[in-house]
């Protein structure tokens, strides 16, 4: 939710641009971007277009040293501005000149350049820093995973604060070059294409590039000892997967799932349209967590996702996010359904394709699992609140909403919408209301009532007529459990990220 600027007249706007910013007419950037769920997330007054992170990480001690160069444009006459960051900073330069800086709270770095920045002007911000991310606790909580052989940054809604300074909100996306030096024998995994790697004096540097807009929480870093596999898609895009050498008994199941990344992406391309990024893959570090995350181009998977055997469904979910969540991102965190409802529904579509239960059968099953007095129905997927942002209802009721839409408008329009939406908002941001309007436009039907019933009403919607007919046919018997249900339900832990934290951010 960008604050709208009020421009009194064209003449006034011209004058503002013609006069350099002065202390008199410039003001401090807001300490938050304006997201009601997380008031401190992101910042106001500027927009970042590119992050260049040059890092060095010592796995034995967890010491991370870095220089971050941000290319930014002031969106107001700016006397000072905030970055979201938690590690110890030694120097900040703005436009090449040393700037004053101070830390406010756990994660706000307040930067005052020697001279105010004029609205519309581009500048560089260089931040030198060092610290041990595992020692940074915010509200008693850390996003950083310390592993026996290194460390991992992969969390939602934020992890950047633990390893680089940023405008930490999906509204301000940017491209990334991430260069990481680690001791020989360790690897550094990040987003996008591995452009180059070189070794010198016992250290190996990995240079990664993510060349399409990327939200800060979708940037990832994993240092450890990995086995790496590489392939190419039919379209020639590089696939790079990384597996911790310490996965033990889950190693086979993890590989049997993630090595199907190219195949799953090929199928998703038929459903959602062209793959939006420059690379694919996934990685499984030796973390003790249970979740998975759609880190851009290279999802993070906890080994526990494969504890019971191979699970391609979780790969489907995280790859679906590359279109729904990564390319088209939320405007505010209240819009999480635009990510999770669709990623969950893609698991139902995969089941349908594999002959393990249609999306309708899965919808009937999910609907029957939750009686009317189940608290499940009190969570509104369309605006669940920060405490319920990753509640199961956002996923399962969110997918029920899509099945209801499909039944209402028919397959032709429904699949046109699934493919059209990622093109309509590619590399941008959108909110729930934008999707409702888009679906109405494509189908030519009024749909506000349907979405209100399935996304906002705090009660169990009446069974759709089609479901009533099916129930009547089976004489009221419980719907049969679809074959794919176990694999899909076992991915429910993918939303178990961050539930142990408070709402401090
Ligand atoms: Zn998800």
Automatic annotation (TrEMBL):
CDD domains: M1_APN_like
Keywords associated with the record: Aminopeptidase, Hydrolase, Metal-binding, Metalloprotease, Protease, Signal, Zinc
Reaction equation(s) it catalyzes: Release of an N-terminal amino acid, Xaa-|-Yaa- from a peptide, amide or arylamide. Xaa is preferably Ala, but may be most amino acids including Pro (slow action). When a terminal hydrophobic residue is followed by a prolyl residue, the two may be released as an intact Xaa-Pro dipeptide
Signal sequence segment: 1-23
Record flagged with keyword Hydrolase: yes
Annotated region (Disordered), positions in chain: 467-505
Composition bias, Basic and acidic residues: 470-483, 494-505
Record domain Peptidase M1 membrane alanine aminopeptidase: where: 310-454
Cofactor: Zn(2+)
Recorded GO MF terms: aminopeptidase activity
Aminopeptidase N-like N-terminal domain segment(s): 49-218
EC number: 3.4.11.2
EC class of the enzyme, as a word: hydrolase
PANTHER family per UniProt: AMINOPEPTIDASE N, PROTEASE M1 ZINC METALLOPROTEASE
Family recorded in the similarity comment: Belongs to the peptidase M1 family.
Protein name, as recorded: Aminopeptidase N
Organism whose genome encodes this protein: Streptomyces xantholiticus
């Amino acid at each position: 939710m960008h604050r709208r600027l009020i421009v009194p007249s064209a003449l006034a706007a011209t004058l503002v641009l013609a006069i350099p910013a002065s202390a008199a007419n410039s003001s401090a950037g807001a300490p938050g971007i304006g997201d009601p769920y997380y008031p401190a997330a992101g910042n106001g007054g500027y927009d970042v277009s590119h992050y260049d992170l040059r890092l060095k990480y010592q796995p034995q001690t967890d010491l991370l040293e870095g220089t971050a160069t941000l290319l930014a444009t002031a969106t107001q006459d700016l006397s000072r501005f905030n970055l979201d960051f938690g590690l110890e900073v030694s120097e900040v330069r703005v436009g090449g000149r040393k700037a004053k800086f101070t830390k406010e709270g756990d994660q706000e770095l307040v930067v005052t350049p020697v001279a105010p920045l004029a609205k519309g002007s581009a500048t560089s911000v260089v931040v030198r820093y060092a610290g041990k991310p595992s020692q940074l606790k915010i509200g008693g909580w850390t996003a950083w995973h310390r592993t026996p052989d290194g460390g991992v940054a992969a969390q939602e809604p934020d992890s950047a604060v633990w390893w680089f300074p940023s405008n930490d909100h999906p509204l301000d996306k940017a491209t990334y070059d991430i260069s990481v030096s680690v001791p020989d024998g360790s690897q550094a995994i990040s987003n996008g294409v591995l452009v180059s790697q070189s070794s010198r004096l016992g250290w190996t540097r990995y240079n990664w590039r993510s060349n399409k807009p990327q939200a800060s929480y979708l940037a990832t870093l994993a240092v450890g000892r990995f086995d790496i596999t590489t392939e190419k898609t039919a379209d020639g895009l590089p696939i790079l997967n990384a597996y911790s050498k310490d996965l033990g008994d889950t190693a086979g199941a993890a590989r049997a799932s993630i090595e199907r990344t190219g195949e799953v992406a090929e199928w998703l391309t038929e459903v959602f349209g062209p793959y939006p990024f420059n690379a694919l893959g996934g990685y499984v570090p030796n973390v003790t967590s249970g979740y998975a995350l759609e880190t851009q181009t290279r999802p993070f998977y906890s080994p526990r996702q494969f504890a019971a055997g191979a699970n391609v469904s979780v790969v489907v979910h995280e790859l679906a996010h590359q279109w729904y969540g990564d390319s088209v991102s939320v405007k505010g965190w209240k819009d999480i359904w635009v990510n999770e409802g669709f990623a969950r529904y893609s698991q139902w579509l995969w089941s349908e394709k594999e002959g393990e239960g249609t999306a309708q059968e899965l919808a009937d099953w999910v609907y029957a699992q939750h009686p009317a007095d189940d608290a499940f129905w009190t969570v509104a997927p369309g605006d669940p609140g920060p405490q319920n942002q990753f509640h199961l209802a956002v996923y399962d009721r969110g997918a029920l909403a899509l099945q209801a839409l499909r039944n209402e408008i028919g397959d032709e329009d429904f699949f046109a919408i699934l493919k059209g939406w990622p093109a309509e908002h590619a590399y941008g941001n959108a909110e729930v209301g934008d999707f409702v309007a888009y679906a109405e436009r494509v189908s030519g039907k009024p749909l506000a009532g349907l979405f209100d019933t399935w996304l906002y009403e705090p009660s169990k919607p009446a069974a759709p007529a089609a479901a009533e007919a099916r129930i009547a046919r089976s004489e009221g018997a419980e719907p049969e459990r679809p074959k794919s249900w176990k694999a899909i339900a076992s991915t429910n832990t993918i939303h178990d990220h961050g539930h142990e934290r408070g709402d401090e951010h």
